[in-house]
Amino acid sequence: MSFSALGLKPELLRAVAEKSYDTPTLIQSQAIPAVLARRDVLAGAQTGTGKTAAFVLPILQLLGEPEGRTPRALILTPTRELAAQVAQSARDYGRYLRLRSAVVFGGVGIHPQIAALRAGCDLLVATPGRLIDLAEQNALDLSRLQCFVLDEADRMLDMGFIHAIKRILKLLPPQRQNLLFSATYSDDIRELATRLLRDPQTIEAAPRNATADRVEQTIYRVAQEHKRHLLAHLIRGGNWGQVLVFTRTKHGANRLTKQLTAVGIRAAAIHGNKSQAARVRALKDFKDNQITALVATEVAARGLDIKELPWVVNYDLPNVPEDYVHRIGRTARAGATGGAVSLVSPEEAGLLRTIERLLKRALPIAETPRFEIVAANTAPPQAQAPAALRPHARSARRGSRPRGAISGRSTSTASGR
Ligand code: AMP
Fold first, then answer.
1. What CATH number was assigned to the domain covering residues 215-396?
2. For residue 82, how far is its CA from the centre of ligand 1 (angstroms)?
3. What is the CATH number that goes with domain 3-204?
């Protein structure tokens, strides 16, 4: 199947060809004709499937010529990164059209955005909070909207945007086309879909919550304070060239990045407290293989355009079980080496059970390999605290065989079991 067979106009085909896309992805070949036919769409698709082009291309076609000042298509995304990426895609795919697009999100000044809206736009990409702010300031009129897209709807609900979404829906005219994209389906998503969509065409780019079945998954039980040593062992021992590591908190991401760097593994953190420039740089370094481990929080990693990865590590299990499916879906590489590794501490047993309930099966627990405990001499003073103050210190010691200092590092081994 080629893009021209999908009924897209020459200006869009030209832009697509310039992106060097040869064939439409699965989601594109299904969604583009449906959207062009003005159907509502419910699509199960995550980042990496080509979902953005799947809705942006047909929307640009339906919008036709620039018209009026108020947006006729609205794409709502959970994060500013994703909003910026989608807006960039709209600019790229629409480069041979005269349509005007704008993007609005929080964390930056509102006035330039008000000015951009005043100047007029046909397609608007927005995060929920800023969209509501703008509407409340009467800077935004959505009464002529024709097409509404909820991108990464599951993430929006996880981030607590349901009330914002309901408020936004009230600002929209009743007659409109609705597209809902979600990587996972929870009951809340189904309820939202029922409320939002009329006779939708259902499209599955990845089977529901089933990505997990195609990914080689390994669970290692390990004490929380030994996770970093096991991770370093896995990266080195397995010669992992590229690994995306998920931590629960920004602080945890920073700390782990420092710890990996201290033992000679090139790592960078990516999370909400990092400047946009730092995030872009970390991502670029990762893609260019300048760093081995990209340590990310859930929100920061979501929406990042990182194509299939050899390795994904859950350094901390996610609090929301659907996130597990989404995270490990980053590495569905049939036949290739790679997979998803979860380091599960005893405290996380409950989280593991909720994930297994979602997947409707038990996840196999692999034998934790023996690994070295490498303490850099530069460790902060608290790491030198008396053993009695360190939880699990004794059990760790029991399995350890001190080997003496090696070039400024003290090492021992532990099985972590
Ligand atoms: P998305 O899932 O929308 O985040 O897209 C993931 C990546 O796939 C982006 O880098 C797109 O530029 C790229 N992409 C989208 N459609 C195609 C296609 N048909 N062929 C090759 N690459 C594509």
1. 3.40.50.300
2. 14
3. 3.40.50.300
Averaged pLDDT score across all residues of the chain: 85
Stated pTM of the model: 0.61
If you measure from the C-alpha of residue 49 to the centroid of ligand 1, how many angstroms do you get, rounded to a whole number? Answer: 6
* pLDDT tens-digit series, residues 86-124: 999 999 999 999 999 999 999 899 999 999 999 999 999
**From 52, 155, 304, mutation site for ligand 1 pocket: most ligand atoms within 8 A of C-beta:** 52
Mean pLDDT score, 387-394: 33
pLDDT tens, residue by residue, 2-44: 899 999 999 999 999 999 888 898 899 999 999 999 999 999 8
- Quote the crossing angle between the two packed helices 10-18 and 80-93, to the nearest 10°: 120
Pick the atom of ligand 1 nearest to 47's CA: 2
**Rounded-to-integer distance, Cα 132 and Cα 165, Å:** 9
Identify which of 8, 12, 23, 25 to mutate to test ligand 1's pocket (most ligand atoms within 8 A of the CB).
25
> Residues 256-271: pLDDT tens digits?
999 999 999 999 998 8
Q: List CB contacts of 31: < 8 A, sequence separation 6 or more.
A: 41, 43, 51, 54, 55, 58, 179, 203
Q: Look at the alpha carbons of 268, 274, 275, 279 in this order and tell me if their dihedral is positive or negative.
A: positive
41, β-bridge pairs: 179, 201
pLDDT at position 65 over 80: yes
226: which 2 tokens?
A: 């030994």
* Ligand 1 pocket, residue 25 CB under 6 Å: yes
Measured in angstroms, how far is the CA atom of residue 335 from the centroid of ligand 1?
22
Distance in Å, CA 201 to ligand 1 centroid: 22
47 close to ligand 1 (CB < 6 Angstrom) = yes
pLDDT score recorded for residue 213 = 59
Q: List the domain boundaries for the chain.
A: 3-204, 215-396
Only one residue has tokens 């079945």, namely: 213
* Topology agreement, domain 3-204 and domain 215-396: yes
